[in-house]
Amino acid sequence: MKKANVIYMLCFFCAALGLASGCDKLTGNRPEKVYGTVISVDEAKKEVIIKDASTGKQRTITVRNADQLAVLKPGREIKAKVRRGTTVAEKITPRIRKDAGKAGGQKNGEE
Questions:
Q1: Which of 6, 38, 95, 109 could join 77 via S-S bond, C-beta 3.0 to 4.6 A?
Q2: The pTM is what?
Q3: How is domain 32-94 classified at the CATH fold level?
């Protein structure tokens, strides 16, 4: 009888751990996607100040890897994955739009 109780408790504990490990996906703790234009870069603080494309407000993003700052210049459009509830970027890169080469809706070969 005691052996069966121990087995049930172990199964219950393992099931609880499995549910708890999946909670991040259920609660929306995925990184937030942020798009904007770089206003300034502070390499000493590893910070980038951007104008958020969705809100129009200034936003400060902290970068963990200083190498990512090398390609970020004022006026450049960026995309970032920021941990929710923080200002820390998991990844920040220049934004390349698919329609960037088609100014004015021109097709290839047209002037």
A1: 95
A2: 0.61
A3: OB fold (Dihydrolipoamide Acetyltransferase, E2P) (2.40.50)
